[in-house]
Specification:
single chain; binds NADP nicotinamide-adenine-dinucleotide phosphate
Length: about 250
């Protein structure tokens, strides 16, 4: 089984670092034309040098900037593959969670997925084309995690967004799924779980005994986007070494 995207345009948000970068490189290797959206221009420049992708710089925490970036991505040609990967985590205990951190987390992790998905889906429906969307959720959507109030709330919301999108976009042959990784070894994973006092107890709950690599997540995303997953729709796919079934 070989995944081949045959020149389809694939938008990846948060493609500058970590999981998003890994996804962008993998989709390129599978023959997609990648449109990379991220916040830091230097990351986008480095990625463009490596895979020759289109780049769009935007701060997706800003609703107008997110809408403008999505419109630009769609205006450049039909987007048949979309990965809503951009996400942030601002670890705070429940009692210390600030309104600012909560709003920003929801804006990036959920609202930007809504904005990009609406733009892509409207263009696909108008052009009578099919497509596939994957939302980067987390195991944190399904369990509570200490010091992750806003993050867990955002990923729970993203799963629900995925389900409603699947219901409404399915009749248009636009497939929508989510992947739900465990701790993944990226700059975000390092920031939230780098302290062995935190990582040890989490690792002990993963039956496979390790955290995920970005490639573990990228492979799952590429599969869900591919025609090999043509009948898979509305699922939340754990990429968690068994954490959620333990
Ligand atoms: P990461 O290492 O922090 O990389 C995130 C990327 O998204 C960066 O390129 C970042 O750009 C970009 N981004 C963040 N905020 C943005 C904004 N406001 N506008 C535009 N781009 C923005 O994170 P990651 O670990 O790869 O996580 C990727 C996704 O996987 C997220 O949705 C995350 O919640 C999810 N996830 C991660 C883990 C984990 O343990 N790492 C586990 C489960 C799920 P800048 O660096 O320029 O801000």
């Amino acid at each position: 089984m070989q995944i081949q995207f045959n020149g389809q345009r694939a938008v990846v948000t948060g493609a500058g670092k970590g999981i998003g970068r890994e996804i962008a490189v993998l989709l390129h290797k599978c023959g997609a034309k990648v449109v990379a959206v991220s916040r830091t221009q230097a990351d986008l420049d480095a990625l463009r040098k490596e895979i020759g992708c289109e780049t769009i710089q935007a701060d997706l925490a800003d609703a107008s900037a997110a809408q403008a970036a999505a419109a630009k991505a769609v205006a450049g040609g039909p987007v048949t593959l979309l990965v809503n990967n951009a996400g942030i985590s601002i670890p705070q205990s429940f009692l210390a969670t600030t309104v600012e951190a909560f709003d920003k987390t929801l804006a990036v992790n959920v609202r930007s997925a809504l904005v990009f998905s609406q733009a892509v889906a409207k263009a696909l429906i108008a052009a009578k084309k099919t497509g596939a969307i994957v939302n980067l959720s987390s195991q944190a959507s399904m369990v509570g995690i200490v010091d992750h109030t806003a993050y867990c709330a955002s990923k729970g919301a993203l799963d629900q967004l995925t389900r409603t999108m699947a219901l409404e976009l399915g009749p248009h042959q636009i497939r929508v799924n989510a992947v739900n990784p465990t701790v993944t070894l990226t700059p975000m994973g390092e920031m939230a779980w780098g302290d062995p006092k935190k990582s040890g107890p989490m690792l002990a709950k993963i039956p496979l005994g390790r955290f995920a690599y970005p490639k573990d997540v990228a492979h799952a995303v590429a599969y869900l986007l591919s025609e090999q997953a043509d009948m898979i729709h509305g699922v939340m796919l754990p990429v968690d070494g068994g954490f959620l079934s333990a």
